[in-house]
Amino acid sequence: MNASTPATASNATLAGSAEITGHPMVLSLSCKNSRGIVHAVSGALLSVQGDITDSKQFDSPDTGTFFMRVEFTTPESREAVEAALEPVREEFAMDLGLWEASRKTRTLVMCSKDGRTLNDLLFQQRAGTLSVEIPVIVSNHLELQPMAFFYGIPFIHIPVAKDAEGNSNKAEAEAKLLDLVAEYDIELVVLARYMQILSDDLCRKLEGKAINIHHSFLPSFKGARPYHQAHERGVKLIGATAHYVTADLDEGPIIEQQVQRVTHAQSAREFVIRGREVEGSTLSRAVKWHAEHRVLLDGKRTVVFD
Ligand SMILES: Nc1nc2c(c(=O)[nH]1)N[C@@H](CN(C=O)c1ccc(C(=O)N[C@@H](CCC(=O)O)C(=O)O)cc1)CN2
């Protein structure tokens, strides 16, 4: 609108739009698809003086599920917004989430020896381009402790090993991890090249709250040594996949993937080096989208409102 527009009722509102102040919030929802959902949600937000600044939706033809993410500002309290949305949530039996847009996701990062993806996360967190706060780093090795020290973040060493009789301490290690999740009020666990397989029980407890970076373009080359598998196969593209962690190794819902061209002249070692570039950006992007509530689960798949 510019100064020359004559002042009328709707323009008055428009004229008053500069007055629309408030704090930015985000909601995301999923429910069985039906008519009237968008109308109901936008009406509820209007009732609390909501100004929608971004809105995306998707009807999943395979599952009949409707997904929606809305960014809006409102001068009213979170409680008032929750109250306005409650009848809509009930009417459509929604799985609905509501967040202050400025709130950072409390994130625990797990790593082993390869520090590229960890460094990318810590750099972006420090640079303010990743909406997370990382109060603690956990590793089954000590190699990355200096990096944690550099960023001023507590580093907890939880080795995972088998004794002479082949008995693993994985259960105790995972119990310590869950104690840290509770102690630091963690909302997201990121496996930044953490090279131990999490138990079924831990995966259930972290369902939808744990993201892993797998160093291949899934579903190709699952397991511990994907670059060597890829080199053996003679591929011309390598890649990385960020996915939610499930009990089925490297089978979790995919959030983001990227690829990198390679040639016959490169060794498996060079694949590892080139792969790190896409691992870092793939994981950081997936964590960014999760922290901004842009990723919703659609069965074994994801809907990403980027
Ligand atoms: N339950 C899950 N746990 C983990 C997943 C997952 O998808 N589900 N992803 C891995 C990461 N990863 C591949 O991306 C991976 C890590 C480790 C292994 C593996 O075979 N590890 C061996 C031990 C290796 C070692 O000690 O260095 C093992 O655990 O026996 C395969 C794939 C993280 N965890």
TrEMBL record:
The active site is at D250. One of its GO terms (molecular function) is formyltetrahydrofolate deformylase activity. SUPFAM superfamilies: ACT-like, Formyltransferase. It holds the Pfam family Formyl_trans_N. InterPro entries: ACT-like_dom_sf, ACT_dom, Formyl-FH4-Hydrolase_C, Formyl_transf_N, Formyl_transf_N_sf, PurU, PurU_ACT. The keyword ATP-binding does not apply. It catalyses: (6R)-10-formyltetrahydrofolate + H2O = (6S)-5,6,7,8-tetrahydrofolate + formate + H(+). Its EC number is 3.5.1.10. Keywords: Hydrolase, One-carbon metabolism, Purine biosynthesis. Pathway: Purine metabolism; IMP biosynthesis via de novo pathway; formate from 10-formyl-5,6,7,8-tetrahydrofolate: step 1/1. One of its GO terms (biological process) is one-carbon metabolic process. Residues 26-106 form the ACT domain. CDD domains: ACT_F4HF-DF, FMT_core_Formyl-FH4-Hydrolase_C. Catalyzes the hydrolysis of 10-formyltetrahydrofolate (formyl-FH4) to formate and tetrahydrofolate (FH4). HAMAP family: PurU. Belongs to the PurU family. This is Formyltetrahydrofolate deformylase. It comes from Citricoccus muralis. The lineage of its organism: Bacteria, Bacillati, Actinomycetota, Actinomycetes, Micrococcales.
